[in-house]
Specification:
The chain has 151 residues and is an alpha+beta fold. It contains six helices and three strands; from the N terminus they run αααβββααα. The N and C termini lie far apart (61 Å).
């Protein structure tokens, strides 16, 4: 932009009070979008949108009912604490062959947590409870099961 054109534009702005007030109002409106409150609102809106997207993605996964109860191990003839994977999903489907499956507590815990939490959040919980190597093995097994049953 040449200096002459710029000088003419500034001169016009200084002499035209209506244009100056309109530009000032636009500048104030623009400045309001940079406040901390507006920024916080945008961040909260972004997290809500991400949570909604995550729930949409979880809608494609089958979430089985998991309960935790004492379970009779017929081979050992003793009662063990187990996670019971019931062959019914939250959508009332029955994709597996038997009615229920006994699983380890950590596998049941992982399946239950994966309903509402991301893989990384569940991995952090398992890592805290069982250590890194065992957490990775548990999560790999559970995610493989989820992938196999999600059609």
């Amino acid at each position: 932009v040449s200096p002459d054109v710029m000088a003419d534009a500034v001169n016009t702005l200084l002499t035209d009070e209506k244009a100056r007030l309109a530009l000032g109002q636009k500048a104030r409106e623009r400045a309001l979008t940079f406040t901390w409150d507006k920024t916080a609102q945008k961040v909260v809106a972004l997290f809500r949108k991400l949570k909604q997207i995550r729930h949409l993605e979880n809608g494609y996964k089958r979430h089985f009912a998991v309960s935790f109860a004492p379970y009779l191990n017929n081979r050992r003839r003793q009662i063990e604490n187990r996670a019971i994977l019931n062959n019914i999903t939250l959508q009332k489907e029955r994709p597996l062959m038997k009615d229920h499956y006994a699983q380890s507590i950590e596998e049941g815990l992982s399946l239950a947590l994966l309903r509402e939490h991301s893989r990384h959040e569940v991995e952090a919980v398992l890592h805290h409870l069982y250590g890194q190597d065992r957490a990775e093995a548990i999560l790999e097994k559970v995610l493989g099961f989820q992938e196999a049953t999600s059609g």
